[in-house]
Amino acid sequence: MMFKRKQVILVLLVAMVGVAGYLNWAYQRGSDVTGGAELAVNPDQYETAQRPLGESALVNSDVSGETEESAPTAVEQDVLKQARSDKDLARSKAMETLNNIISSPDTTPENKSKAQNDLNTMAANMEKEGVAEGLLKTKGVTDCVVFATSGEVNASVKCENPLETAEVAKIQDVLTSTFGVSVDKVKITEIK
Fold first, then answer.
1. What letter does residue 41 receive in the DSSP assignment?
2. How far is CA 22 from CA 38, 87, 124, 173, in A?
3. pLDDT-based confidence at 107, cuts 50/70/90?
4. I need a surface site. Which of 32, 45, 93, 188 has the fewest CB within 10 A?
5. With 60 as the cut, is the pLDDT of residue 51 above it?
6. Cα 177 vs. chain centroid, distance in angstroms?
7. Closest Cα partner for 54 from 35, 37, 39, 73?
8. In this structure, what DSSP letter does residue 6 have?
9. DSSP readout, 86-138?
10. Which is it for the CA torsion 107, 108, 112, 118, positive or negative?
11. Residue 141: CATH number of its domain
12. Based on the structure, what is the number of domains in the chain?
């Protein structure tokens, strides 16, 4: 059975969106080389990002035995910036592909309709992500990146200390109400 060009493009588009979702999931799960340390609040939804390998924690060893912790490395400072960049790049590629499918004269009406629905869903998710990030900042989160795909919501939250149970509940409340998902579909990752 031969696939038509439109069907191949549609399959490739779905695969690209799946790969983007997988990369986001892998990035969220493996945001550090050593693996996340699970917190006691809800182990299925929570990870802690550790220091990158090679970062020194002790930089001053004077006679008194006191030590000073080094300033955060560029890697630590740019984790959320890189996450935003990766998310924007994956989204722009997917949107470009969808727009090409929609504008192609060779695309069947049903494939155009599916591509338009996917584009609308992506735009709605982008809007909700922005709203959620803004709401989280009003709740005291200093910086965060929210990413929604396939009924799941991932949030990377910058914090100095481990999140308290009340803080986790606030974050979960914002994400569940904004995206209309249950708590088990929300994953929060701490970025130190």
1. S
2. 21, 12, 20, 25
3. confident
4. 93
5. no
6. 18
7. 73
8. H
9. HHHHHHHHHHHHHHHHHH-TTS-HHHHHHHHHHHHHHHHHHHHHHHHHHHHHH
10. negative
11. 1.10.287.4300
12. 1
Residue 61 has pLDDT above 50, yes or no: no
Residue 74 token pair: 């560029």
Q: Residue 191 — φ and ψ, nearest 5°?
A: -120, 120
Domain annotation covers residue 111:
yes
Q: Is residue 68 part of a domain?
A: no
17 burial class (0-12, 13-18, 19+ CB within 10 angstroms)? Answer: buried
- The answer to whether residue 67 is domain-embedded is no
Cα dihedral 81, 159, 137, 93 sign: positive
Q: How far is it between the farthest Cα atoms of the chain?
A: 78
Question: To 5 degrees, how large is the angle CA 27–CA 131–CA 149?
Answer: 40
Q: Which domain holds residue 145?
A: 5-51+76-191
* CA–CA distance, 74 with 168 (Å, rounded to integer): 27
How far apart CA 171 and CA 188 sit, in angstroms, is: 8
Structure tokens at 101: 């499918």
